[in-house]
């Protein structure tokens, strides 16, 4: 399967390259460049960067927002694979900002999943969890098996980080099954995720002391990368297989993979190359080929020296191995020098186990040379650091348990809040239409029928039926577009105006021009209880009632809705309410439930004591007489809605 797909991909890429060479028109070149870069970001970073340079140059002259978005996504992917995480973050953040204005649902979900991967690389697990949660919420509304599999893969790596191996294996195997069973042909990024999955499994098996399984998983990664041309991190994969063979004591196989890591020119990681030199040197040392081993250690040291601040552990290992070789060569002076250098670098890492091991070697060295005082001092130092190491291990295990506990607690809290919000939604929908509204509306329709006004009866019966049907449909939805919410509200107000109050009520709905109501999604039927409250308590006794509903963009995550009426005011409404038992419980059933929904839905971003609904009395500035009531509701923007026709996967 891999070979056939890979051969076809090579043919397609070569055809695109040929077309690019013959295409002079900049706009046509943009399309070809975009398709080629989508392939090269996983197979040939050097070529991808070359083409990206031309893409960006053309985009400066020809404004093409969709391709500019892709440019940032490609750059983010490349920088992430080249371990330049800060630059990758810049491009991801830029892309996510652009997606607020344009892009498909799948693109938004995909970027959240990919950005979570970057956060995992940066060990920012809390942010990774947050973005995976965002992606999961979108996938509930716009399902995609491909993106769901990638999401589960990332969640598996979160569990791997927390040391929850059983859960991590479960998730990674589930993601593997979902990707391999996709109906549509796999793209290069699907295979890239498969390599992540089996690389993660190899790491888990190694941690569980199952070297044979680890070798099989890691060799599968290498096979996939070789056959599909995914070469950007191939050196690391060769290195991992070699280390697994070393753990099995199979030196010959290990050496073969370390050499492959050195021969691969496509992986941009010099660290992988240096590690291959060092591990290959260790293999030669084990075979007593000391001169060859020292040459390889020198090469590793030279590469490590390019980034000395991050390679203290590697410097320490190389020096320790050199010390061992010089000891076997009976060069005591060089052996001591290397051991002391190894200790110097180890102390910079605060790796207590490494420090303890080197102290033990130094104690043995001085004992062999009859310097028992220094031998005793280093032995004491060994005992001190081995104790600190065990204490550190205990603390690390405790932190891992705490992290697992917090992650599970957060997951359960999220699920509980979602369940609570759903229950409240159903309660709110049951309390939504008070019986007086429905009775009066149907009674008015009946009057049209008995007075033989068939046209009006038919017209308003259809409107009433449509309103009831919508309320039932929405009971199954957590979110709807603001446009649908406003249409529902307008239908409700029309029936109140024409049927229930017989033209004694009028209304206005005003939408700020900054709001794109067709793509912003809000909680289902969130405004209607406040409009109903205004009608029931403010306008029911008025002859010329007026309701105004305004929608403003409060911030990037919130819409501010203002419901104003010219009613009798809260004080007078309360007096009437106390004397009319039919309406005493209306607010507690409607708006109070909605306020609980808002509190839960705002939970992730809100301060604990924040209030999301504010009610103001409107009064005459001179007389102080009531002029009505204004209610301001902060509504969370839950999603960005894109029409199904534009839900294609992004080119990355």
TrEMBL record:
Keywords: Coiled coil, TPR repeat. One of its GO terms (molecular function) is phosphorelay sensor kinase activity. Pfam families: His_kinase (PF06580), TPR_12 (PF13424). InterPro entries: Bact_2-comp_sensor_kinase, HATPase_C_sf, Sig_transdc_His_kin_internal, TPR-like_helical_dom_sf, TPR_rpt. GO terms for cellular component: membrane. Residues 425-505 form the Signal transduction histidine kinase internal region domain. Gene3D superfamilies: Histidine kinase-like ATPase, C-terminal domain, Tetratricopeptide repeat domain. TPR repeats lie at residues 274-307. Residues 322-349, 402-429 form a coiled coil. It comes from the Bacteria. This is Signal transduction histidine kinase internal region domain-containing protein.
